[in-house]
Sequence to fold (189 residues):
Amino acid sequence: MKTLVIQFGTSRFLQAHADLFLSEGTPRRAITVVQTSGDATRSHRLAALAAPEGYPVRIRGLKAGNTVDETRTVTSVKRCLSAATDWPEVVRVFVEEAEFVLSNTGDAGYQSRPEDGAAAYHPAMSFPAKLFHLLAARHAAGAAPIIVMPMELVVDNGKVLRDAVMAVARLQGAGGALVSYIEDRVVWA
Fold:
């Protein structure tokens, strides 16, 4: 099963918006969801998201003055992983399958952490540091640039995330080709 979309974060916003749109869109897109926090108390959500029968989203409101109250089933989520326990598979999906990145790790996900300076991946890293390591792996494998669509509620979130990833690249002493790949070839929506 190939998933062209890799999603970081398990927020209800992504579940009821992006995942629903990708489930109903043309063409439909399959998603791998990655829990970035490693919070074991939220791991039950991973199993529910990837259930073969999908999960329900209730839509209520008004459309053209008429009341809407319906339930739709989201079936776009095909696989769920944890960045804390499934990192090698996260890297594989990011490098070999994904063409698009969605994220909603919350504002706190962008905050730098002491582990961001570690040469190797560490689960306690910030989301930008995790993304740096994934982009470095993608670049090393010769994979095409990817489109990153952050959905955190941060003004100019694409620019902010790119700048945060570039700060990690500087911290890591990344070389010119990798820096150019991240800064100039990756699309930061």
The longest strand covers residues 55-63. The CA atoms of residues 28 and 144 lie 21 Å apart. The beta strands are 5-8, 31-35, 55-63, 66-74, 77-82, 100-103, 147-150, 187-188.
